[in-house]
Amino acid sequence: MRMDTICVQSGWKPKKGEPRVLPIYQSTTFKYDTTEEMGRLFDLEDSGYFYTRLQNPTNDCVAAKIAELEGGVAAILTSSGQAANFYAIANICQAGDHIVCASTVYGGTFNLYAATIKKLGISCTFVDPDAPEEEIERAFESNTKAVVGETVANPALVVLDIEKFARLAHRHGCPLIVDNTFPTPINCRPFAWGADIVTHSTTKYMDGHAMSVGGCVVDSGNFDWEAHKERYPGLTTPDETYHGIVYTEKFGKGAYITKMTAQLMRDLGSIPSPMNAFLLNVGLETLALRMPRHCSNAQKVAEFLQAHEKVEFVNFAGLPGDKYYALAQKYMPNGTCGVISFGLKGGRQEAVRFMDSLKLAAIVTHVADARTCVLHPASHTHRQMNDDQLREAGVTPGLIRFSVGIEDPRDILADLEQALEQI
Predict the structure, then answer these.
(1) Which segments of 117-244 are extended strands (E)?
(2) Is there a contact between 230 and 198 (Cβ–Cβ < 8 Å)?
(3) Distance from C-alpha of 270 to C-alpha of 273, rounded to nearest angstrom
(4) Are 93 and 228 spatial neighbours (Cβ–Cβ below 8 Å)?
(5) Cβ distance 109 to 198 under 8 Å?
(6) 153-212: per-residue pLDDT in tens?
(7) How far is CA 399 from CA 66, 176, 267, 324, 367, in A?
(8) For the whole model, what pTM was predicted?
(9) Closest by alpha carbon to 4, among 339, 406, 291, 318?
(10) Residue 296: which of 199, 397, 385, 404 has the closest Cα?
């Protein structure tokens, strides 16, 4: 099926007499007739549901839809995008391991990898994604287990050269993990360019209406864990908590997601509620319709801002003069996303005054939904970073992140115009 059809038809497959719309399985538990039946589920000998902390039918249908959209073999929903980014690493790393990450990733992800996983004994080296391969290669260590980046960085809007990072990762026997939140699979399919695992904050465009927080991890099934058996013992050696099963031997291409479900969800429980998964599915049904509108509106806004005398710079890969225009045309020829970042002449003070003057666009700690919104990263999402870290992330003190919604573009432009008149 084509992408538009997958958005509507994939996931839930009703049988005769079943609901046409994906049901909300709002239950913590599931009944079985014998102790043997339940026991086989706990041993991973049978597939099925027994406790929603691990799996739920509503969630699994939505995960299957996202996996099909990305072209992956399996996926799992998490309770947030941050949980997805943590699980993607924790599933293959342990104390003493190391990862390489693009320095321009979302501020929350930067803090997760710079501070939180460090407390768990996993170290991270941040690299300039635009640096030459030989420079990035120096960041790898003998214990490097993964490479991480964002297709379009939030909020610097740096476009990742996926093929370059895939080459580097695979040269060192590591999977490439790519956060594809901003373009979504409608605009970018990272697996086609060599990525191995994709994460999403489904809170953003996939939900599309700021109704439910969530995340997703999708496995391409392409990385050969067995070829690097000694590097990934969690997948390739017996798991004593499940009577010694070996995930790669028992589940093949489904090993990575099965382990994430059986171990991380079992022990950490960052699963979304079935209600939130249901709301996400409603958003997914119109994803292929909304993304082109977000992109076309953003193009108009970017061109307007670029021509305005009070605007110092505009970051948007849809502009022919943008630093990342060529990469965007390669990886995302139909558009990147609806997010723009820009700076005003006068810096931080003018940025704050401008934002406070907006009427249609709301100041919110959110991005990428149907409503136009705005945020000041240095004061909000990246507030925990020092000045050096802000520069590494591509965030200047006066940078404004503007998420263009699906309203009439004339109304969005009018709001920008009146706010610019106030400074």
Answers:
(1) 123-127, 144-150, 176-179, 197-201, 215-219
(2) no
(3) 10
(4) no
(5) no
(6) 988 899 999 999 999 999 999 999 999 999 999 999 999 999 999 999 999 999 999 999
(7) 32, 29, 40, 18, 15
(8) 0.95
(9) 291
(10) 404
- Strand duo 176-179 + 144-150: pairing: parallel
348's enclosing H/E stretch is: helix 348-357
CA distance 190 to 412: 31
User: Which tokens in the block code for residue 108?
Assistant: 């929350």
If one counts every other C-beta atom within 10 angstroms of the C-beta of residue 47, the result is: 9
Residue type, 231: R
Cβ neighbors of 128 (< 8 A, separation 6 or more) are 102, 103, 135, 136, 392
Q: Where are the alpha helices (DSSP H) in 203-339?
A: 233-236, 247-251, 255-259, 266-268, 274-285, 287-307, 325-331
**Alpha-carbon gap, residue 254 to 161, rounded angstroms:** 27
CB 331 within 8 A of CB 152: no
Tell me the HSE value of 38 on the side-chain side, using a 13 A CA sphere. 9
**What pLDDT score was predicted for residue 349?**
84
Is the Cβ–Cβ distance between 308 and 423 less than 8 Å?
no
Q: What integer pLDDT is reported at residue 179 of this predicted model?
A: 98
Half-sphere exposure of 315 (CA within 13 A, CB side): 22
Tell me the mean pLDDT per 10 residues along the chain, length 423: 96 96 96 93 90 96 98 98 98 98 92 96 97 97 98 93 98 98 98 98 98 98 97 97 95 98 96 98 98 98 97 96 97 97 88 94 94 87 73 77 97 98 93
What DSSP state is assigned to residue 260? Answer: I
Q: Is 288 helix (H, G, I), strand (E, B) or coil?
A: helix
